[in-house]
Amino acid sequence: MPLTKKYLKTKPVCKVTFTVPAAEATTVAVAGDFNNWDTTASLKKLKNGSFKGTFDIPTEQSYEFRYVIDGEWTNEQEADRFEWNSYAAAENSVIEL
């Protein structure tokens, strides 16, 4: 599940593209610190079966996030690191910007 970062030169924002291969899934969303854990931030399903979405996220911070694939919470395997979250009682993916 790759994610890509594209830093903007004109403002302190990074365009982060989340790509999730989930051909059998109906819905995929990304929820995290950067969007107040909004589970309705759906990614668009592509013809190849993966889901993709790009978000403008402020830089010089780290953010915890997870994917919600058909209601199941899943981590990004290629995250910058992982961090235990006591509230969720689970390890979350972390992206460093």
Instruction: Compute the number of helices.
Output: 0
Order of helices and strands: EEEEEEEEE
Mean pLDDT: 95
Subunit arrangement of the protein? single chain
Distance between the termini: 18 Å
The poorly predicted ranges are: none
Number of strands: 9
Q: What structural category characterises the helix and strand content?
A: mainly beta
Radius of gyration: 13 Å
Strand content: over 45%
**Based on CA inertia axes, which overall geometry fits?**
globular
Helix content: under 10%
Largest sheet: 5 strands, antiparallel
Q: In terms of topology, how is this protein built?
A:
Blueprint: E1 3-7, E2 13-21, E3 28-32, E4 44-45, E5 50-58, E6 62-69, E7 72-74, E8 81-85, E9 90-96
Antiparallel strand pairs: 1-2, 2-5, 3-6, 4-5, 6-7, 6-9, 8-9
Give a short synopsis of this structure.
The protein has about 100 residues and is an all-beta fold. The chain has strands at about 5, 15-20, 30, 45, 50-60, 60-70, 70-75, 80-85, 90-95.
Descriptive notes:
The chain is mainly β. It is 0% helix and 55% strand. It has no helices and 9 strands. The protein has strands at residues 3-7, 13-21, 28-32, 44-45, 50-58, 62-69, 72-74, 81-85, 90-96. Strands 3, 6, 7, 8 and 9 form a 5-stranded antiparallel beta sheet that branches. It has a 4-stranded antiparallel beta sheet with strand order 1-2-5-4, with no helix packed on it. Strand 6 (62-69) and strand 7 form a beta hairpin. It is globular. It starts with a strand and ends with a strand.
